[in-house]
Structure formats: structure tokens, C-alpha cells
Amino acid sequence: MQKIAFFICVLILLAGCSAPDEKYTTVANGQEERVQQIEKVLEKHESIEHVNMVVLDEAMLVAIQVKPWSRWKKQKIEQQVKKELEDKFPKEKVTVSTDFKLHWEAGKLKEEKDQKKIRQQVKQLSNLAKEET
């Protein structure tokens, strides 16, 4: 009985010590410097759990997933992040959303190889984000 209890405790410890998931998922060809700048802006917000980013030459889509206890302030977090990114990148079209569908769709773009389709999808997702608000 003691061996079984010890084995269960070891399994629980190993499960708790597993590596955390990555916080950022990015689609950006040749835009690594801008991605790092965006990550610096997003690191200030402790309530952000995961971010899917699509960074193009002229536009960026940032889909945010917030932590469960911060869901009450989703809109406020979205507005703060958008304002900070617009201040940091004034010449670019910035789209920030806390909607899960946009987060999911932006994550799916990671597998897409065709730049034309990525641009088209980002434009469509940006329009969808505007309709929500």
C-alpha cells in the first residue's frame, strides 16, 4: 500500500513540474525585431495568459486570451494593449482582440504557408473584430 501511495505522489510531482506552455504564438516572416517589441509591450500585462500574433509589413493582429480572474476586465485590457501598440507603431494598422474565435483563427494561421492567404485572412479577421465592437 505504501508503494502505491509513493508512486502516486511521484506521478503528481512529475505532472506539476512539467514545462509551461509558450505564452506567444507568432506568424511573422522577417519581422522578428517587431515581434520582440510587441512581446515587451505585452509582458507588462500580468493578466494575459496567451497571445497569438500575426505580424505583416503594414498590419498586425494580436489576439489575446486573458486569465480567468481577469475576464471581468477584458475590454479594458484590450483597449490598454491597443493604445500601447498604436503608440509604439503609429504607422501600422493594429488590431487587438480578446475574442476567443479570433484567437483560435489567428492560431490556425501558423500552419498556413501562402502569404497571400495570410494577408487575406488577417484582413477578414480585422473586419470581424471591428464588427464586434
Describe this entry's structure for a reader.
It is a single chain. The protein is an alpha/beta fold. It has a single domain (21-132), classed as GMP Synthetase, Chain A, domain 3. It is built from five helices and four strands. It has helices spanning 2-16, 32-43, 74-88, 100-108, 115-132; strands spanning 24-27, 48-55, 59-66, 93-97. A four-stranded mixed beta sheet has the order 1-2-3-4, sandwiched between helices. It is elongated.
Q: What key phrases describe this protein's structure?
A:
133 residues, alpha/beta, four-stranded mixed β-sheet, 5 helices
Topology:
Layout: H1 2-16, E1 24-27, H2 32-43, E2 48-55, E3 59-66, H3 74-88, E4 93-97, H4 100-108, H5 115-132
Parallel strand pairs: 1-2, 3-4
Antiparallel strand pairs: 2-3
Structural class by secondary-structure content: alpha/beta
Domains, number: 1
How many angstroms separate the termini? 58 Å
Mean pLDDT: 82
The major sheet is characterized as: 4 strands, mixed
Cα-based radius of gyration, to the nearest Å: 18 Å
Share in helix: 40-55%
Output the CATH class name: Alpha Beta
Number of DSSP strand runs: 4
From the 3D structure, determine the CATH topology: GMP Synthetase, Chain A, domain 3
Strand percent estimate: 15-25%
CATH architecture verdict = 2-Layer Sandwich
Order of secondary-structure elements: HEHEEHEHH
**Overall geometric form:** elongated
Sheet with the most strands: spatial strand order: 1-2-3-4
Low-confidence region ranges = none
Give the count of helical stretches: 5
